[in-house]
Write a structure and sequence with these properties.
The complex is a heterodimer of chains A (293) and B (343).
Chain A (H helix, E strand, L loop, with lengths): L1 H4 L4 H28 L4 H4 L7 H4 L1 H7 L6 H9 L2 H33 L2 H15 L2 H14 L6 H25 L3 H9 L4 H9 L4 H17 L2 H6 L7 H15 L2 H36 L1
Helix pairs in contact in A: 6-16, 7-8, 7-10, 7-13, 8-10, 10-13, 10-16, 11-12, 13-16, 15-16
Chain B lengths: L2 H30 L1 E2 L5 E8 L2 E8 L1 H10 L4 E2 L3 H4 L6 H10 L3 H9 L2 H32 L3 H16 L2 H12 L4 H9 L11 H29 L3 H9 L4 H29 L3 H5 L9 H10 L6 H34 L1
Antiparallel strand pairs in B: 1-4, 2-3
Helix pairs in contact in B: 1-15, 4-5, 6-10, 6-12, 7-10, 10-12, 11-12, 12-15, 14-15
Classes of the chains: A mainly alpha (293), B mainly alpha (343).
């Protein structure tokens, strides 16, 4: 029977194939193109003469002697010290993920097991907090942070991002803990464990799939953030995304747009790898919230 | 769970949220009631070859001292809310009185920074959200009917626009759409207009930003709908087939109703996220033609012309009110559902 459901007339099949093909090209081509172009000189990637120069690499051949060049990468990573920003990003992202998961698992577990009215109100409050545009919060931090000399340091940005991340983490882990049967930790408590011991010895060993999925999204939030890092970090402590934004101002005048292109490709590469390895977790994470709805 | 235990479990998470989400909302409100100090003036005797005269100068030291003593600025009440850069009631009244018809009134309103940003933010939110739903649904239907071995790679590619850093994603598109980039020159060739530049025209900039928004968010809707399609009950579809429902009718009357909760979920998330649209404006350098509420706050804080906490605070409070308006229907609904469950 299900065979019949999936049998489709050929015009419909063609339309479906065309639609999906169009979408795949729209979604994927910009990345392929920018990756390819990052190994060219500016005269090719932004060609005044003919866009096909970017394919054949005419100017690249003239200027560097080869079809491909790593000049953009050298300029960005070494000359403009993009590596410092990459290091900062690593510190920020790892700290944010670890801290927000630690706080989030404790809180999410409590919310899932409470069953009281106030747990529901807290979840609603978290939803409201989740909706706050980040920049409105940042404009509240800026003055106190200036006054207390907290501005510009990595730990400040880290704790702020952990806080901004909490509502989402709580929601996700809460709905995940709801799926772990209550009997598990309750039987441990009947055997004489305290609530925390039950959590530590019974829940922690089985919670990793949900924690990993939530961690991926915390990672994305911290890695992709521009608002917080651009406003709360000093020049020396900049992470990759604000660094790229500051490239735009300086490199356009110096004719070094290719530095920015190379930096953009470098910053996208880790995300690419992430999707490659964790596609299943990302998909299940996106849908878990919806199914509980 | 006992109240005490609950409290200790939730405490760390709650403390960070109160400190860095709830308090800032309060602090933003207090900031919005204050405004930068006026400069302190002093009289200085200035003696030159033609005699001495009294001059009034800015007392830099005293101004700095005052700023240090009271960093918040001086109290201004709701003055900031009503100035030209925010709600601009008097300018609006003036424009209303001067305008013979709606069109002129609207175009005058559009010249006020706050309303300009509001216009783009609302347009962006309410165009991108339905388009994302529609496109996501179509892709989900399409991918669902692909042979199995194609599904994985298609999903992989589809995730990329969503997962990529918004600023980076918009830069990638911006460089392609540049007059010297591949899409820009293709468009020039298509329309046979060598001067066609998407950056120069406000209308095209808006369209470009909206297309970026759809490109960025469609994967999210697609993934959620795709997961929803896996759970459509085959029994119901088979029953509909036996009753003679056509393919279209089956989609319309069986599949779509099954997905309604997901539509609500996606719209909620999309409304929240699109309302704070910000990075694409930076990435596309579109501030000349399109600004958003988030962008003007950012510009007040880090725009390079100085930091205006009062002004940023006032816009932030207005933005938060906007978010609250968007959320009220959802919160009411959820609350009603919850009540129904408990009683």
């Amino acid at each position: 029977m299900s065979e019949i459901i999936h049998r489709r007339p050929w015009p419909l099949k063609t339309i479906i194939w065309l639609l999906v093909l169009c979408w795949v090209i729209t979604a994927g081509f910009p990345f392929v193109w920018t990756l390819w172009g990052s190994f060219k000189v500016q005269g090719d990637f932004f060609s005044k003469a003919d866009w096909a120069y970017a394919l054949s690499g005419v100017r690249t051949q003239v200027e560097t002697g080869g079809i491909f060049t790593g000049d953009g990468y050298f300029g960005a990573w070494i000359t403009k010290s993009f590596w410092v920003a990459a290091l900062n990003t690593m510190i920020v992202v790892i700290s944010v993920v670890v801290i927000s998961l630690t706080l989030g698992t404790l809180g999410g577990y409590a919310l899932a097991r409470s069953g009281k009215k106030y747990a529901f109100y807290l979840l609603m409050l978290a939803l409201v907090f989740r909706a706050m545009p980040h920049i409105t919060l940042v404009s509240g931090y800026l003055l106190p942070f200036f006054e207390w000399n907290l501005w510009g340091h990595l730990p400040t940005a880290i704790i702020v991002m952990v806080a901004i991340n909490q509502p989402f983490t709580l929601w996700m882990l809460h709905s995940f803990f709801l799926n772990i049967p209550k009997d598990l930790d309750e039987s441990a408590m009947v055997d004489g464990c305290t609530r925390f011991q039950a959590f530590r010895h019974v829940i922690v060993p089985v919670m990793w799939p949900g924690v990993i999925t939530t961690g991926l999204f915390s990672f994305l939030l911290a890695y992709n953030d521009f608002t917080v890092t651009a406003t709360l970090l000093s020049q020396a402590n900049q992470t990759m995304v604000p660094k790229i934004a500051s490239f735009l101002g300086t490199t356009q005048t110096e004719g070094n747009v290719m530095f920015a292109v190379a930096a953009v490709v470098s910053a996208t590469a880790p995300l690419f790898v992430l999707v490659m390895f964790f596609q299943r977790q990302i998909v299940s994470g996106l849908t878990s919230g919806a199914v509980k709805g | 769970m006992k109240n005490r235990t609950f409290f200790w479990f939730i405490l760390p998470s709650l403390v960070t949220m109160i400190l860095f989400i709830a308090l800032p909302i309060g602090s933003v409100f207090i900031q919005s009631l204050h405004i930068e100090h006026d400069a302190v003036f002093k009289e200085v005797k200035n003696c030159g070859p033609f005699g001495c005269k009294l001059e009034i100068q800015v007392d830099v030291e005293a101004s700095a001292q005052l700023k240090e003593d009271r960093p918040l600025g001086k109290f201004n009440g709701f003055g900031t809310y009503n100035n030209r850069n925010h709600l601009a009631a008097s300018e609006l009244a003036q424009a209303w009185a001067d305008s013979p018809n709606w069109k002129i009134f609207l175009s005058k309103t559009y010249n006020l920074p706050f309303y300009r940003a509001l216009a783009f933010t609302l347009t962006y939110t309410f165009v991108v959200t339905p388009m994302v739903l529609l496109l996501g649904f179509c892709i989900a239907l399409g991918v669902n009917s692909l042979p199995k071995q194609f599904k994985g790679p298609t999903i992989f590619v589809s995730l990329l626009p969503m997962i990529v850093t918004p600023l980076i994603g918009s830069l990638i598109l911006f460089w392609m759409i540049d007059a010297e980039g591949i899409l820009g020159s293709t468009l020039q060739w298509l329309f046979e207009d060598p001067n066609l530049s998407l950056k120069a025209s406000p209308k095209l900039t808006w369209i470009m930003l909206i297309i970026y928004g759809i490109w960025h968010s469609a994967p999210f809707a697609f993934i959620v709908f795709y997961a929803g399609l896996q759970t459509v009950p085959t029994d119901t579809i088979e029953a509909a087939m036996i009753d003679g429902a056509s393919r279209w009718e089956r989609t319309r009357y069986v599949v779509l109703p099954h997905l309604v909760p997901l539509i609500v979920f996606i719209s909620l998330i999309q409304l929240m996220d699109n309302f704070r649209v910000f990075e694409p404006i930076v990435g596309f350098s579109a501030q000349a033609s399109a600004t958003s509420l988030s962008w003007i706050i950012f510009n007040d804080l880090a725009g390079g012309e100085g930091t205006f906490f009062g002004s940023a605070g006032a816009t932030s409070v207005l933005t938060i009110l906007g978010v609250a308006l968007l959320l009220i229907p959802v919160l009411l609904r959820t609350w009603r559902d919850f009540k129904g469950k408990v009683v």
